């Protein structure tokens, strides 16, 4: 307690030193605390389900022509067989994620929904807060329709009225019975607020659902994998050699949900760890300088009988007290920074983000980190002070050059380490910034300016077939086109970079090319003016017209990439394709146009091939029930949003309009992850740069103050100011050069961990390395020049009076 009280008095006597040290430590500890809270929630905490370590996902592995491809979706017949044959799972459930339109309880609302099998809720250990779960009869074909709502949706739409349970609600245009309410925090799959019974299919033509299982107590994942391999082999023997789904893979649910974010979080954690190391090095340098100023005090203590351990304990107490204060400030910064971090974080970058918050684990981490930091930066000054020679206290002017040189070397080594770490962070941020700039420069293939998109989903109860759907779209387009300020309007079942719609891929055949079987491409149903609304250029032939309907000959427009793949050095116009869109299995359609390639789902990927057909010639309802309308406007597109909603609801008042975005917003959302990663790493790098420059400036300034008498003598003997400046800068830049060399070497080794987050940039991009090194060296030179210029203005008379 005596040491604590004395340490507190000493810190209060030096408010400038204390304030700088506290802020430096608060920055390092706060950043680490904030990022650790994310890492702890996402990677370290178990999932919010009972015995979550026994939950696994079952993936299907398809092997063909020596290649293996993992599918997260499974075939319904396989799932049924696994349920009957396995002996390692306590529960096995299947689910499919989608969206549904809720018409009861207010305005039509589009909400996330999931179809689930009967064991789904018992597998996850979730019980309804009101009502019941699904009955076996509700999972049978033709069974009574039922639904469960989340507590949040129940309160928002029905005011938490218990009388609603057991009553019918309108979902996607049909009446279903609301049988129960699930806890508000339960939203599995992600973003779901509504669950319905899943009726499994008997056909093996589409893999639409995912499989989730709970291992029996005492059964390891390896044992379960071995049994599932045996079952998969037995099932595969009854399938054709080309059938998909010949093997399975078990993946823990924890890995499934958070595995994609692991490496990114470790990159951020490493970055803030580097910032903390720089902060520790800075405070160590401050303490070393302060220790030199208190050398006489320490020597007198030694002369009065204080042992080395006693002196070291006293100084370590001061360091730990300083670190504790920095930890408290850091915790406050972490709380504020965490809120800002979550607010700026784009959707789907990090899972479980809504579970992050202040708790006992975070407080324990903050306290432990503060204690460790205090020992880390206080150890060197405490050890150095404990070497004090008691005899020096009896000598008025006694000096020892050797210890001074050792102290100077230690301070410069710490500065070099700060610089090396800063160089690593700055190069990483530079690579991310260049990658982001390259991503923003990608050619989209369409013009996003002044274009608004909105999504529609036609319920089968109201629109049972293609005829009714086409009639709705025709009337809606006519009314939208008549609105003032509309230049062009169209729609497609999937627009580039759009969040709504359903992108469909499938095979096709080319007439006269019998060797090319099972060709694969995306298939998009569009309205005639879709290409004009998107401003996708026509390269050959023509666009669709209103006469391209079910009474005319079948036509198609292909993308430039598809033309290049299958008609190299040829004109594809007039070629005939078979897609299976018509009422008969073999219906040939003619290629009448070629349009430019467009980026589809990911700006990082090359534009895929695409094949467009007029929606009027599509006979399948699943191509038409979900569409994205595109409106190109004369002025700001957002100004038309309300008018568009009213126009569509004038055609069908019960139809919800959702996903209203400008094309520019969609493009921005697809670079949001890269922007956030760049911003966050850049923020850490900027902090490291400021701390490193403060360290350089502090060491050079302290060196100048310690050599004031020597500099005065040099000036008195005729040295010019320029020579003094060169001497000081040269000594300061030695540490800079050492740090730059070491940092560059370390960066070459570590930047490879960023490779998966870079676009069109190599982890060792020479331009980025050279730019960072030149800029940092210039700024470091400026940090050395300020005290050097001050040294050149030293008055020799005053300097000689120094002692």
Task: Please describe the structure with a list of short key phrases separated by commas or semicolons.
single chain; 803 residues; alpha+beta; six-stranded mixed β-barrel; 21 helices; 23 strands; 48% helix
Q: Could you explain the architecture of this structure?
A:
The chain is an alpha+beta fold. The two termini are 37 Å apart. Helices cover 48% and strands 18% of the residues. Strands 1, 2, 3, 4, 5, 6, 7, 8, 9, 10, 11 and 12 form a twelve-stranded mixed sheet that branches. It has a six-stranded mixed β-barrel with strand order 15-16-21-18-20-19. Strands 14-22-13-23 form a four-stranded antiparallel sheet. Helix 17 packs parallel to helix 20 (766-792).
Low-pLDDT residue spans: 396-403
Structural class: alpha+beta
Oligomer: single chain
Mean pLDDT: 86
Total of DSSP H or I helical runs spanning 4+ residues? 21
**In whole angstroms, how far apart are the ends?**
37 Å
Q: Can you give the helix content as a percent range?
A: 40-55%
What global shape is seen? Answer: elongated
The major sheet is characterized as: 12 strands, mixed
Q: Indicate the radius of gyration in whole angstroms.
A: 35 Å
| Total beta-strand segments | 23
In terms of DSSP E residues, the strand content is: 15-25%
């Amino acid at each position: 307690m005596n040491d604590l009280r004395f340490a507190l008095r000493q810190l209060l006597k030096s408010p400038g030193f204390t304030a700088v040290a506290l802020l430096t430590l608060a920055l390092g500890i706060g950043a680490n605390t904030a990022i650790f809270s994310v890492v702890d929630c996402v990677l370290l905490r178990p999932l919010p389900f009972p015995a979550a370590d026994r939950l696994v996902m079952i993936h299907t592995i398809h092997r063909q022509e020596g290649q293996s491809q993992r599918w997260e979706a499974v075939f319904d017949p396989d799932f049924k067989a696994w349920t009957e044959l396995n002996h390692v799972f306590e529960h096995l459930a299947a689910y499919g994620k989608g969206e549904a339109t809720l018409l009861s309880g207010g305005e039509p609302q589009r909400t996330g929904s999931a179809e689930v099998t009967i064991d789904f809720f018992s597998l996850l250990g979730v019980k309804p807060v009101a009502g019941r779960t699904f009955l076996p009869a509700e999972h049978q074909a033709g069974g009574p329709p039922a639904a469960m709502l989340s507590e949040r949706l129940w309160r928002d739409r029905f005011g938490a009225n218990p009388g609603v349970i057991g009553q019918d609600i309108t979902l996607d245009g049909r009446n279903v019975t609301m049988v129960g309410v699930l806890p508000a925090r339960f939203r599995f799959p992600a973003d779901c607020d509504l669950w319905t019974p899943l009726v499994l299919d008997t056909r093996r033509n589409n893999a639409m659902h995912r499989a989730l299982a709970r291992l029996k107590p005492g059964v390891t994942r390896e044992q379960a994998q071995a049994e599932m391999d045996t079952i998969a082999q037995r099932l595969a023997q009854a399938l054709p050699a080309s059938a998909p789904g010949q093997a399975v893979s078990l993946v823990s649910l924890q890995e499934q949900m958070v595995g994609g974010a692991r490496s990114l979080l470790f990159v951020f954690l490493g970055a803030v760890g580097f910032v903390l190391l720089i902060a520790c090095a800075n405070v160590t340098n401050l303490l070393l300088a302060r220790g030199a100023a208190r050398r006489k005090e320490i020597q007198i203590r030694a002369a009065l009988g204080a042992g080395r351990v006693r002196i070291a304990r006293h100084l370590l107490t001061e360091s730990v007290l300083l670190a504790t204060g920095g930890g408290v400030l850091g915790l406050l910064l972490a709380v504020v920074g965490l809120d800002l971090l979550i607010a700026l974080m784009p959707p789907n970058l990090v899972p479980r983000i809504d579970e992050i918050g202040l708790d006992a684990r975070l407080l324990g981490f903050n306290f432990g980190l503060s204690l460790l930091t205090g020992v880390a930066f206080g150890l060197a000054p405490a050890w150095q002070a404990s070497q004090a020679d008691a005899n020096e206290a009896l000598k008025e002017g006694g000096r020892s050059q050797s210890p001074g040189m050792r102290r100077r070397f230690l301070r410069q080594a710490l500065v070099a380490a700060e610089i090396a770490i800063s160089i690593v962070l700055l190069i990483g941020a530079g690579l991310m910034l260049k990658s982001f700039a390259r991503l923003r420069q990608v050619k989209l293939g369409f013009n996003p300016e002044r274009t608004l998109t909105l999504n529609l989903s036609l319920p089968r109860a109201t629109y049972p077939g293609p005829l009714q759907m086409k009639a709705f779209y025709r009337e809606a387009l006519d009314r939208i086109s008549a609105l003032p300020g509309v230049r062009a309007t169209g729609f497609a079942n999937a627009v580039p970079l759009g969040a709504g719609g359903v992108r469909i891929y499938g095979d096709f055949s080319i007439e006269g090319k019998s060797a090319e079987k099972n060709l694969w491409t995306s298939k998009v149903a569009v309205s005639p003016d879709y290409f004009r609304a998107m401003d996708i250029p026509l390269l050959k032939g023509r666009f669709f017209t209103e006469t391209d309907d079910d009474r005319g000959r079948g036509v198609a427009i292909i993308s430039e990439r598809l033309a290049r793949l299958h008609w190299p050095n040829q004109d594809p116009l007039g070629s005939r394709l078979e897609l299976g869109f018509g009422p008969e299995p073999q219906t040939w359609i003619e290629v009448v146009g070629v349009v430019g390639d467009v980026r589809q789902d990911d700006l990082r990927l090359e534009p895929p091939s695409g094949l467009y057909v007029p929606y009027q010639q599509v006979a399948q309802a699943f191509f038409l029930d979900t569409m994205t309308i595109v409106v190109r406007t004369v002025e700001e597109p957002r100004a038309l949003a309300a008018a568009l909603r009213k126009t569509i609801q004038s055609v069908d008042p019960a139809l919800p309009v959702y996903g209203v975005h400008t094309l520019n917003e969609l493009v921005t959302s697809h670079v949001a992850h890269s922007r956030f990663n760049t911003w966050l790493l850049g923020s850490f790098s900027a902090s490291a740069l400021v701390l490193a420059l403060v360290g350089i400036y502090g060491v050079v300034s302290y060196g100048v103050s310690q050599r004031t008498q020597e500099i005065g003598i040099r000036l008195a003997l005729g040295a010019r100011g320029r020579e003094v400046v060169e001497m000081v800068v040269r000594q300061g830049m030695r540490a800079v050069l050492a740090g730059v060399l070491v940092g560059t070497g370390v960066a070459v080794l570590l930047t490879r961990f960023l490779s998966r987050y870079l676009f069109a940039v190599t982890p060792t991009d020479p331009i980025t390395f050279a730019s960072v090194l030149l800029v940092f060296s210039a700024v470091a030179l400026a940090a050395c020049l300020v005290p050097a210029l001050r040294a050149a203005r030293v008055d020799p008379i005053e300097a000689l009076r120094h002692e």
